[in-house]
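Sanity check

After download, print the first record. It should look like this:
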Amino acid sequence: MVNINFVPDDYVQGNESRRTNLMYLILFTVVMTALGGSFMAIKIRQRACNAHEKLVNNRMIEIQETIKKFEELQAKRRAMMKTALTTAELLEPVPRSILLASLTNNLPVGVSLTKVSMIQKEPKEKNKVTLTSKYQAAQTTQSESGQNLSPEQLLETHIDIGGMAPTDLQVASYIERLTESSLLDNVALVESKEFKIDEATFRQFKLTAMLRKNVHLTKEDVERIKDKAEDTMWNF
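Expected C-alpha cells:
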C-alpha cells in the first residue's frame, strides 16, 4: 500500500526550522547563563580579593606605624641612655674601682684598708677652696670658673678611709702619698688609736679626703692604675 503525505513540504520544512531555531535558542540561553554565572563568580572573587587586599594594606599601615613608634622609642631610649651615662659620668667622674685601686697602690708596706666609703655632697662654701695637693694652681683656676659649671659638676665627693698600720710612721707615709695623688685633695687624719690583735699591737686609723674636681683619666692612666693595683695585691 502506498503512503500518501498530504502535508505540504513547505510546512514540514518550516516546522523543522522552528525546532532547530528553538534548540539554538536554548543552547544560546544555556551558554549565556553559564557565561553570566562565571562573570558573577569572577566579580565576587574579585571583590573578595579587593577586600582582602584592603585589609592587608591596612594591616601593613598599622605595622609600619608600630615600627615607626618602636624606632622612636628606641631613639628615645638611646637618648635617655646617653643622658644617663653623661649624668653618671658627671656624678662619678672616676669609677669607684679605679679610686679603690689608687688607694691600694699608695699603701705602704704592712698597711691594709678595712673600710672605704664615698658620698657626694653639695659644697658648703662654693667660693672657698682649700687644697693640699700639688695641683693647687690648676684647681684654683678651675674654681674661678665654677659659676659656669652645672649643679652635678659642683658636687664634692667625700671619702672616708679606714685601715690598720703597724705604727704611726706608716700612717703618716700613707697620708703623704695620698696627698701627692692626682685623684685626691684635702687628705686629713681623723683618728689613730692603738688596737691589739692577739698579742700584736697595731694602729687603727681613719682618714678623710676629697676627690679632686674635674679629674679626667685617660685609658692609659686607668690601665696603669689597674696593673699597679694587681702588682700590689700579689706583693701584699
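If your output differs, re-run the checksum step. Summary of this record's structure: The first strand starts at residue 112 and ends at 121.
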